[in-house]
Amino acid sequence: MSAGLAVDDAAWASAWRTRAPLDKLLLCGGLVVCALVLPAWPGSVLVALTAVALALGPARVPARTFGRAVRWPLAFVATGALTAVVSVDGGGLGWAPDAAARAGDLVGHSVAGGAAVLLLATTTPVSDLLPVLRRLRVPAAVVEVASVTYRLLFVLLDSLRTIREAQANRMGYSSVRRSYRSSGALAAAVLTRSFDRARRMQEGLAGRGMETGLRVLPEALPSSPAFLAASAAGLATLLTVGLVA
């Protein structure tokens, strides 16, 4: 199972699944703000630990799923930190004078913000977030593109799995050379199918006169004053400790 599908499954199975999406969005958005405004030490560390503790604790997100989903963001952060601390001048390639401080700030803020976003992703399905975005007056075109992209993602993943299995059954990955060739053919086939599916979907919706997007009746999930109060208290505590320490 891919990490993307695992995150979606975790969101549907989360103990916070029945909580109002806006409540979770406010909590995770507050954590992202804390990750941005607080110093890397100890603010970002506290934010990251809080997000992970909430995901693995009250939200009951599987630790393996959370760990698998965070691998690629961590690799991206590590690459960015490495390029940020390297300086190029007349003397050639070397370390920036404040390399350690710059790397620490970049990694701290990025990891904390990523953990907060991942907390939202593993506890709230996209289908629950889209109605909230409409309520927050996000442009309809943006919401519609996000909705279509989300639906097409599963079509592409299914095509990817089907084609790869067919290639593997024909010994397409039995050697390094064949693996490169099969990978190129796989990418080409998936891209072709994705464009074809998108075109057919657009033509089908246009033929039905769908000019305002697909409207569905969202599930009614009432807001929890206790959850909002606890979130506000927790965020205030993080801000206080992060600024004072």
UniProtKB/TrEMBL annotation:
Q: Which CDD domains match?
A: EcfT
GO BP term, example: cobalt ion transport
Keywords (alphabetical) are: Cell membrane, Membrane, Transmembrane, Transmembrane helix
User: One GO term of the cellular component aspect?
Assistant: ATP-binding cassette (ABC) transporter complex
- Where is the chain membrane-spanning? 24-57, 69-86, 106-126
Q: What is this protein called?
A: Cobalt/nickel transport system permease protein
Q: Which organism is it from?
A: Geodermatophilus dictyosporus
Q: How does it sit in the membrane?
A: Multi-pass membrane protein
Compartment(s) where it occurs, according to its Swiss-Prot or TrEMBL record? Cell membrane
- Domain of life of the organism in this record? Bacteria
Where is this chain primarily localised?
A: membrane
Q: InterPro entries, alphabetically?
A: ABC/ECF_trnsptr_transmembrane (IPR003339), Cobalt_transport_CbiQ (IPR052770), ECF_CbiQ (IPR012809)
